[in-house]
Amino acid sequence: MASNMARKGFRLVVNDINPAAVKELEELQASSAPTAAEVAKKSDVIITMLPDGPVVREVVGGADGIIANAPKGALIMDMSTVEPGTTDDLAAQAKARGLRYVDAPVGRLAAHADRGESLFMVGAEPEDFELVKPMLEAMGTTIYHCGGVGTGTRTKLVNNFLAVASCQFNAEALALSQGLGLNLESTLDVIYGTTAMNGQLKINWPDKVLAGDTSPGFTIDLAHKDLSLIMQAANTAKVPMPMAAAAREMFSAARARGFGSQDFSAMVDAHCDLAGIEKPRLKK
What we know:
Elements: H1 2-7, E1 13-14, H2 19-26, E2 31-32, H3 36-41, E3 45-48, H4 53-61, H5 66-69, E4 75-78, H6 84-96, E5 100-103, E6 106-107, H7 110-114, E7 118-123, H8 126-139, E8 140-147, H9 151-179, H10 184-192, H11 199-204, H12 220-236, H13 242-256, H14 267-275
Parallel strand pairs: 1-2, 3-4, 4-5, 7-8
Antiparallel strand pairs: 6-7
Helix pairs in contact: 4-6, 9-12, 9-13, 9-14, 12-13
């Protein structure tokens, strides 16, 4: 995402715990800073993309974090997937220090991000949305202004419930096909031709787990984290979600069997491992 911004002329100051990512951006004329606090001091807009709520709270709202170091009037745009309370709390902290706050979590796959084709769900005041829109356009092709601050985060949880829960359905269905001794190719042809078809199974899985590639675009660990956020938000809103609870426990089982760092399409491998049957693979 940052590399797409750099290629399109944005001047970036970057920091990451992965030195290789920083080096790649430096080769695209970005400058680096030793800490997120130093990034904040040098920037009018500070963008964060982090793995979970506790990390976002530390980096953005910690004692020597972004809010404590950003210049007055700066805008913070968090693109992480976090619980709504984290967004609400940090937005309030930012406002108290004269800063603006936008939540803009990301949709679609890692491959889309590489190509600059991401989708964004944005929670922002109208004038702040207009400020960040050109940056989002540099990183993606589809931008939805969902409403005020916090609506992007909440929309992302609804979206990810469908994406991650369908991964569970897909895993069970394909494991069942293998357990019943069916041909994978002909089974997929039938599924793709009926209303049982879903986007993950047709768009992502043939190039990932069914091709034997379980390197992470979006890991089982992160999917489990998102299901936990979804359950937490549902509990707060008093919305019963039994399917989400069941799906999360299957992701827990996959993590316990060592699949956590693999792509979330590898849930089907975890299912087949549990069932003691062969993993489904498309013939090359």
